[in-house]
């Protein structure tokens, strides 16, 4: 093996990579999927309450409302404009504060508080905004709440749907780069006969496979991190996240090399990936449906890297919590590489007679 020859092939593929549709898909589609989930999908199924405020006296209530998490607050200049936005369902509720509201409230004069509710707003948003407004009024008045609310969570710590979709997007990034980009780079050259011309030079088939795999590995690591950053899922353990992403990219690339050495042409490659694709992406379904028996996900080989990634990125686990799962993933990666060696020898023999 020659590191110089491997780097030469790697550099050539990296330079020509943007010309390949598969390379562009591996880079662009995870970003587009993130946009769809975080903007369109999340806003449709988990909308934040939207409150508009017309403040004619620079009330403390307005500043307090703008500092709340989970509520979108907009300041408006006139009552009529606020009414139109609420009636059009562009706002869930509207609040009009007259001049001197804070002083009148503290003096016990019961100032007028005009509160508009949108007819098409969600009932949950109406309740949230109504209760929040009453709490803010009491805070300005300086009075204590009449009751002490105790919240009990029956969700069992289940993450919101947008967070449970993150493993799907990260898995897609890993599969497109590690599996598909690696496999297609080899099979495409084999089908175009450029691989035959390459291996009659001092470059060996193993060096070509390492170079192709290195490109897929690098792109997989980069896109996995880009996807995690865009989804605000970096967790609290940088070292654990780095190791987990590297192991995930290594296993994805090893699977890509298995497909690369097993397929004789692009049509066969697509057939192999379609036939085994569920085994690769299957585990992510169990994060979308946490009520399903989770032990079934362990049957899938990619579970052993996607579950540590999910736990480190979204649940705050550290490397010490997931090392044994990563060890299993590394074992499966080594097994895949052993299969690659055997398949590469068969591929070498076929290239010699073709």
Descriptive notes:
This protein has 2 domains: 3-41 and 160-353, no CATH class; 49-141, 3-Layer(aba) Sandwich (abc type-2 transporter like fold). β1, α3 (60-66) and β2 form a beta-alpha-beta unit. The protein is mostly helical. The model is unreliable at 151-156 (pLDDT under 50). Strands 2-1-3-4 form a 4-stranded mixed β-sheet, sandwiched between helices. Helix content is 66%, strand content 5%.
Short description:
The protein has 354 residues and is mainly alpha-helical. The protein is built from 15 helices and four strands. A four-stranded mixed β-sheet has the order 2-1-3-4, sandwiched between helices.
Which features characterize this protein?
single chain; 354 residues; mainly alpha; 2 domains; four-stranded mixed sheet; 66% helix; elongated
List the helices and strands and how they pair.
Blueprint (H helix, E strand, L loop, with lengths): L2 H14 L4 H25 L4 E6 L4 H7 L5 E4 L3 H9 L5 E5 L3 H6 L7 E4 L5 H19 L19 H4 L1 H26 L2 H6 L5 H26 L7 H25 L3 H16 L3 H4 L14 H12 L4 H35 L1
Parallel strand pairs: 1-2, 1-3
Antiparallel strand pairs: 3-4
Number of helices: 15
What are the low-pLDDT stretches, counting only 5+ consecutive residues below 50?
Answer: 151-156
* Widest β-sheet, arrangement of strands: 2-1-3-4
Structural class: mainly alpha
Mean pLDDT: 84
The SSE string, one letter per element, is HHEHEHEHEHHHHHHHHHH
Whole-number count of domains: 2
Shape: elongated
Q: Strand fraction band?
A: 5-15%
Tell me the number of strands.
4
Rg over CA atoms: 28 Å
Distance between the termini: 24 Å
Helix content: 55-70%
* Main sheet attributes: strand count, strand direction, barrel closure: 4 strands, mixed
């Amino acid at each position: 093996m020659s590191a110089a020859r491997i780097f030469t092939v790697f550099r050539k593929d990296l330079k020509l990579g943007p010309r390949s549709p598969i390379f562009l898909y591996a880079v662009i589609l995870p970003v587009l999927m993130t946009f769809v989930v975080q903007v369109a999908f999340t806003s449709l199924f988990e909308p934040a309450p939207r409150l508009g405020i017309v403040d004619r006296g620079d009330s403390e209530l307005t500043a307090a409302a703008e500092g709340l998490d989970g509520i979108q607050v907009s300041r408006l200049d006139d009552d009529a404009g606020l009414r139109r936005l609420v009636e059009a369902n562009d706002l869930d509720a509207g609040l009009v504060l007259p001049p001197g509201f804070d002083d009148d409230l503290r003096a016990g004069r019961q100032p007028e508080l005009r509160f508009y509710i949108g007819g098409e707003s969600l009932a949950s948003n109406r309740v949230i905004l109504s209760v929040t407004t009453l709490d803010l009024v009491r805070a300005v008045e300086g009075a204590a709440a009449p009751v002490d609310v105790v919240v009990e969570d029956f969700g069992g710590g289940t993450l919101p749907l947008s967070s449970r979709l993150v493993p799907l997007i990260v898995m897609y990034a890993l599969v497109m780069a590690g599996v598909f980009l690696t496999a297609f780079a080899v099979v495409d050259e084999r089908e175009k006969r450029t691989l035959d011309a390459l291996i009659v030079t001092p470059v060996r088939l193993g060096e070509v496979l390492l170079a192709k795999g290195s490109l897929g590995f690098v792109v997989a690591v980069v896109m996995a991190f880009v996807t995690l950053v865009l989804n605000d899922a970096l967790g609290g353990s940088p070292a654990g996240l780095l190791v987990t992403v590297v192991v995930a990219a290594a296993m994805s690339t090893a699977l890509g090399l298995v497909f690369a050495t097993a397929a004789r042409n692009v049509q066969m490659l697509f057939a192999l990936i379609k036939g085994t694709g569920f085994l690769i992406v299957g585990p992510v379904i169990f994060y979308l449906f946490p009520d399903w028996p989770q032990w079934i996900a362990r049957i899938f080989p990619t579970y052993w890297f996607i579950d540590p990634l999910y736990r480190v990125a979204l649940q705050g686990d550290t490397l010490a919590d997931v090392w044994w799962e990563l060890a299993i993933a590394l074992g499966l990666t080594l097994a895949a590489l052993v299969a690659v060696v055997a398949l590469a020898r068969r591929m070498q023999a076929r290239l010699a007679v073709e």
